[in-house]
Amino acid sequence: MLSAPPRLSPDLVATLPPYASDPTRFLSLVAGQGDVVSYRFGQEERVLVSDPAVVHEVLTAWPEESRWTPITRAAAPMLGDGLILAGAPSWRPRRLVVQRELTYRSVRRFAEAIVANTERALGTWLRGDGDLDLQAEIGRLTLLNLGDTVFGADFGAFADVLLSTLRASQVAIDAAMAGRFDETERQALDEATARLDAVVQRLVDDRTVEPTTAADLLSVLLEARESGDPVFAGSWLRDEAVMLITAGHETTAFTTTMALRTLAGEPETAQRLRSELAAAVARGVAPAQLADEVPLTRQVVQEPLRLYPPLPALHRTAVADTELGGHAIAAGTLVVVSPHVLQRDPRSWPEPERFDPDRFATERRRELPRHAYLPFGAGARICAGNHFALLESALIVALATLRLDLDARDGPPRLVDSGTALRCAGTVPVALRPAPAGAAPAGTGAAA
Fold it and tell me: Is the pLDDT of residue 421 over 90?
């Protein structure tokens, strides 16, 4: 007969920090008690799973219904029946429509637009006073990129509304995670949803009035809706557009911010990357191809993704009595998987706290632990926009490194950890100046 997972002792519980004040530290200390550990959160029973093989089972083999948790229920009014929450049988055909537009190869068609927006932003930054709030500027840049590439629309007019709306939605989801999603939070989320719906409706109306031949994702969604297939009827277009905005912006903005901020504190790695990028440009590599031609560019994004996964914890609900890692799990138990814990586990990652982008170099790729690196999730439900996110972050980092010399201000940025998302608290100040003379050969863009 299977035994229940080991529980935290009262003595240990008394020494743990409050979950709400530092969820990832709390989960890291819980993980120190075993690979499958049970603990109480208010009146709720939770189990943290830290064995990569068992994590893989939860994320790839558990039934669809397991995705329904307090967090997804809170997000449902805004996300509707988009890919994140859609269930079988509608999910698969809807996923295929989105996924085939966001494959590793297909997202390359967006590279030129990302480069153009980034070079304009760099030019503006260089004309400033030398001080930059990296988080605010990257957030605005990634939002413009999302508009130009995925929606074929200028998001400049919507930027303030979208940014405030996304912040409000995250506050509501944070409240649900902390077990305090009350009527005030519900009203705030409803108001944010209404603002987001108005933007989406305007985008759809504008595209309906003025069709385009552009190869953006909104055109593909509209074409699917007009096909007459009932799986694409009803609110599907709205729900998918909202999903693309909410899931496609904040996590990419955070990842890019942390990659550049980390490089600002690692001058030797920054100079190494700048030299490799300059050499590529000198031999004729176009700016839009730098992320593919200079592997280190992607590595300096993948390593911050390991250290600072935008989604530090994933959740599933056991829909029936089951077994995990040799332990009995009761129906209704919330199972927690923490990419933060897995990606800093010394059993899988030597010197886990050290920034080392060469972990992801081609010659060391075979050493990477299976199922212990999952910044985008795993299995059929892996983030559909992962290739787009990596490409965008890598291109911004490449162009910024070529053109700018960033100097970290103060200490490391303070992170807000809600248990569902990592964000930078307040501003992320950096000092900037043009990169050293000769670092960026002519032809890399109009940022100078």
Answer: no
